[in-house]
Amino acid sequence: xxxxTLAGTAPTFAQPTRPMTTDDLIAMxxxxxxxxxxxAREIAFVVSELDLPNxxxxxxxxxxxxxxxxxxxxxxxxxxxxxxxxxxxxxxxxFLSTRSGSSQVWRxxxxxxxxxxxxxxxLDVANLTVSPDGSHLAVSIEVFVDCGxxxxxxxxxxxxxxxxxxxxxxxxxxxxxxxTWEDGRRSHVFVLPAEGGAPTDVMxxxxxxxxxxxxxxxxxxxxTPDGQAIVLTARVAGAGEPWSTNFDLFVSPIAGxxxxxxxxxxxxxxxxxxxxxxxxxxLAYLAMERPDFExxxxxxxxxxxxxxxxxxxxxxxxRSPSSLxxxxxxxxLYATAQNLxxxxxxxxxxxxxxxxxxxxxxGYIGAPALADDRLVFGLDHLRxxxxxxxxxxxxxxxxxxxxxxxxxxxxxxLGNHEQFSFTGAGGDTVYAQIxxxxxxxxxxxxxxxxxxxxxxxxxxxxxxxxxxNPQSYAAAGYAVVMVDFHGSVGYGQAFTDAITGDWGxxxxxxxxxxxAAALDRYAWMNGDNAxxxxxxxxxxxxxxxxxxxxxxxKCLVNHDGLFDMRSMYYSTEELWFPEWxxxxxxxxxxxxxxxxxxxxxxxxxxxxxxxxxSQQDHRVPLEQGLSTFNALQRRGIPSRLLYFPDENHWVxxxxxxxxxxxxxxxxxxxxxESAGPTTP
Length: 680
What we know:
This protein has a domain of 260 residues: Alpha/Beta hydrolase fold, catalytic domain (Rossmann fold, 3-Layer(aba) Sandwich). Strands 34, 35, 36, 37, 38, 39, 40, 41 and 42 form a nine-stranded mixed sheet that branches. A five-stranded mixed sheet has the order 1-28-27-26-25, with no helix packed on it. The protein contains 13 helices and 42 strands. It is of the alpha+beta class.
C-alpha cells in the first residue's frame, strides 16, 4: 500500500503570489473520462474549458502518452466533443459531438486525424460504448416507448412544439425529476453497426430507463463477451417507481429479437455497474441488500456467465465501492471507495476476497483503467483539480501524467489542510478537515467558515469541489472547518446508517463537538467570529441550527435547504428517500417526519441568514427556500434571498457561479470581522 502525503503528489511551485479568486476557480480545466488505447500507450480524455463570453464550458478530446509528456488536442470544433472510446484495434477513436447541431457519434481515424460523422439520427444520442470486436456501437436515446421508430418520437416532439396548447397531462408519477418535467420519454439502449446504420432498441416496449435518470451513465450497460447481447441496468417498477430502488440487471440480444431477461430478480434492492472478466467467464456487478435505501452499502457480486451461480466477493468488507475494474488476468478486481475522508483504490483477490488498500490518503481517486502493468486514474485533492496519474498494480511508483492546471495553481496561495478526529456522539470517532487561511500567520486569529455537507450520506473530504471549495473561503481570510458527522460515507455502514430517523440528533451533536474540538486544537481560530454554511441536507442543518443552536454563529448560509418536512415529502420526486429516512410515508408516520422539522423552531430563530434557491430544483423544491425566507422576514431577522431561475439543485452556469460566490462571500464579509492579532 502506498500512503503519500499531499506534498508527495502536488507539483513544486514557485512562491505563490496571491489568493485564489472565484475567477480562478471556475477557470480551472476539468479533466475526465480517461480511456487507455488498446496498445496501452495513450490515454484519450475530455477537457472542459471555460467559455465565459458564452456562459458555458466547452469540451474537447485530448490524448497523452501513459508515460506523460505534452498532451495533444485532437478536436477543436466549437461544439462539445466528449465520451471518447477506442476501437479494439486502436485505429479509430469514436466520440460524441454536438458539432452537427445535435449529439451524434463521430469517428476520428487515428492515422490521418480525419473525422467523419457516424450517425445522423433525428434524436440526440448519449453514453457511447464499443462492442468487444468493434463491429457495433451502443448508445442511449430518449424515446417514447410506444413509438416503433426514432422518427415517430421526433415527430411527436415536433407536434408538441408546434401546438398552441401547452398543458401536459399526467396519470402517474414521476411528474418531474431532478430538474426536468417528464414528457413521457424513456432512456433506452440502442445498438447500431460501427460503420453507421439503423439503430436497434434492445429494450423494446420496456417502460424503464437505462441508464438510470438523472445520473446514470455508460457504466450501467455493457456488451456481453461475444458481442451479441447487452447487459443493462433498469428499474421496472410501474406506478411505484418514485418509491422504489429496485434496479435490476437485464440481458437483451443486440438484434432486439427478444424482450430483456432479468438476471437479478432475486434481489429487490439496487443492482448496477456490470463488467465482464477478460476471459468472459464472470460478470461482476454491484448490489445493495436493503430495498428502497439509496445509501446502502454496495457489495461486489460475481456471477458465472452466462447461467451459473452468483456469490458475493469480500462480503464483510465495510466499504461501498463506486467502480470496478478487472485485472488483465482476471485474478483481481480493483475498486474505488470512500474511505475516511478520501476516495481510495483497493485490490480484491477474486479467489479469496482478500482486500488490499493500494492507494490511500491522496485525495479522491476516480476512473481507474489498465495500461499494461500500470493503473491509470484521475486524482484531485484540496489543493488541485483532477489530473491523471499512474501507479503499478501493486500501488507503487506513483507518477503524474498531466499538469493542465499547474500554471494557474503556481500563481496562487492556497490554504494548507489537515484532518483530525475527535470523540463525537455516542462516543464514536468522528473525522473532520480544516483548511488554513491563505497566507496563514499563526500570530493572527481568523474568522471561521463552518461548512456542512449535504446528502446527508455524503462527505466533505480531501476533494477539490467547484462550489463548496474550502479554498474559496481560505482565500478570503477564513479558517475552514468541515465535520463528517454521523451519516457520512466512508466510515463503515453503521456510521452511515446512524443518521436514519435522527436527522437533528447525532449529526448536530457531532457538529457541536467537532467545532469545539477544532477551536480547542487550533488557537488561531476565533470561535466567536464564525458563520455556518450548508447545502441540501447541509441547508436543512442550517435551518435546524437556527432553532436549536441559535446563539453560536454570527451568520448562516442556506443553499437549497429543507424547511418543512411535511411539504417536502409531498413535493419532492424521489419518495424512497424521505420514506427510508423517516420511517415510511408521511401519512403513515407523521411523527417521525415531524421529529426534526425546522419549521417548528422558527420562533427561536435570530441569526442573520442568506437563503439561496433555484427554480429548477425539483429535489428540494423552490418553496422550501421561499418558506425559509418568509419565516426570516416575518421574524424581522436580517436576511437575503438569492434566486436563480435557470439552475437546479446545483449552480452550474459560469456567470451564476461567479454571482453565487460573490453573494456568499459578501454575506460573510458583512457579518464577520476580518483576521486580527492573536490575544496574548
